[in-house]
UniProtKB/TrEMBL annotation:
This is GED domain-containing protein. It comes from Populus trichocarpa (Western balsam poplar). Residues 1-36 form the GED domain. Gene3D superfamilies: Leucine-rich Repeat Variant. InterPro entries: ARM-like, ARM-type_fold, GED_dom.
Length: 389
């Protein structure tokens, strides 16, 4: 997909002017009382230098008419302030009022500029998402990354309105679920979805739960998609785990523990721990049916595992925290059976009687999976020590 070079060049020119205006208005807003009356103020100089060029550019875009009005008003306020040089009380009060007005107008300018930038970036992103196979991969990934960064700056109602009106979530989901699109683009779409959930979970979580996105994340079978799934579980909690379980995705997630790639197994472990914390009875039962405890025992006795209790790291709460943090990188599967049991014990998905029943089931499966009585005694002690009786 090729964009009109002249149009692209004009947008770049406008963007350059707007960024300079935004920087100048930001300085006026954050430091309104500093050197505003001096003609050599950097913010004032930028404003004056851009006045003629900005008027020419802003008049061509109807979306920038309000910005042009704000700019004219700001220029008038600054001119008035610079002429107000008396040292009397009345002049002092006038300057204070003008400075406050400048700060408010500067804030409005910054908001109008950001709204224009958001609108243009979303328009460009929509074009790319509508024709993902005809768009250069790096260009589309860059647009997605920029949008993710913008959304990650925090909630903004105007931005949310743009996102909802553009139906960009549906486009992200469509590309993410399209196996013909590159994995790099699909992963970046997943990162944007995760950012939108953090942006406003109440608005976008429902779209995650109702659509095919969860299945797409699991079936994509990439490290990035699993990182996003972990993030979504943390944000949406039990309802998302319910959806994972009802879609039959848990066996696939458990199977990732068998992958040779270490990063894969670590992120799969993280995902399993999150499911353990937020999962209800059906999800925990599904994990146990897939032989999770046996797999965790194999990982724990590997060179990447460790029995923290044997190293004196379960002596008290403080030392336990230090020990797990210290060994998390070099021993990512240290005491992973006990860690899973603790997630069930302190998590949000189970009733108290279900917690007790699952702990007994875990202890039973530990005994069946251990290769020696000594190993069984160590792991059982960790499970009992790490959770309440």
């Amino acid at each position: 997909m090729m964009e009109d070079p002249s149009s692209k060049e004009e947008i770049t020119r406008v963007l350059k002017v707007l960024e300079a205006l935004k920087q100048a208005s930001h300085e006026l807003q954050t430091l309104p009382s500093t050197n505003l009356t001096e003609s050599n103020s950097p913010a004032i100089k930028a404003l004056l230098e851009l006045e003629t060029e900005s008027d020419t550019i802003l008049s061509k875009d109807p979306y920038l008419s309000t910005l042009s009005q704000h700019l004219t008003k700001l220029k008038s306020l600054v001119d008035t302030l610079q002429k107000c040089c008396d040292h009397g009380l009345r002049s002092f009060l006038t300057r204070r009022v003008l400075i406050q007005s400048i700060s408010r107008v500067a804030g409005s300018i910054g908001s109008e500029i950001q709204a224009w930038i958001d609108r243009k970036s979303i328009e460009s992103l929509i074009k790319g998402l509508n024709e993902p196979l005809q768009t250069e991969e790096d260009d589309l990934v860059s647009l997605l990354s920029q949008f993710e960064d913008r959304v990650s700056q925090g909630f903004n109602r105007e931005l949310q309105d743009l996102v909802l009106k553009s139906k960009i979530f549906c486009l992200l989901e469509r590309v993410l679920c399209n196996p013909n699109c590159s994995k790099k683009v699909r992963e970046q779409c997943a990162f944007v979805v995760s950012a939108l959930i953090r942006f406003n979970k109440d608005v976008f979580a429902g779209q995650v739960l109702m659509g095919p996105l969860i299945h797409a994340l699991v079936s994509m079978a990439s490290w990035g998609s699993m990182k996003v799934l972990c993030s979504l579980i943390k944000s949406i909690k039990s309802p998302l785990v319910d959806e994972i379980e009802s879609n039959g995705e848990i066996p696939k997630i458990i199977s990732f523990l068998d992958y040779k790639d270490l990063h894969w197994r670590v992120v799969a472990m993280d995902c399993i721990l999150e499911i353990g914390y937020f999962g209800r009875k059906e999800a925990i039962e599904a994990m146990l049916r897939e032989g999770l405890i046996k797999k965790l025992m194999e990982l724990q006795r590997s060179e990447l595992g460790e029995d923290l209790i044997d190293m004196g790291m379960f002596d008290d709460e403080k030392e336990r925290g230090k020990g797990e943090k210290k060994f998390s990188e070099s021993h990512p599967f240290a005491s992973c059976v006990a860690r899973f049991a603790v997630q069930l014990e302190v998590g949000e998905g189970l009733r108290q009687r279900e917690r007790r029943a699952f702990k007994q089931e875990i202890l039973k499966r530990v005994r069946e999976a251990c290769v020696s009585d000594a190993e069984a005694a160590t792991v059982i002690a960790e499970v009992l020590w790490g959770s309440s009786p």
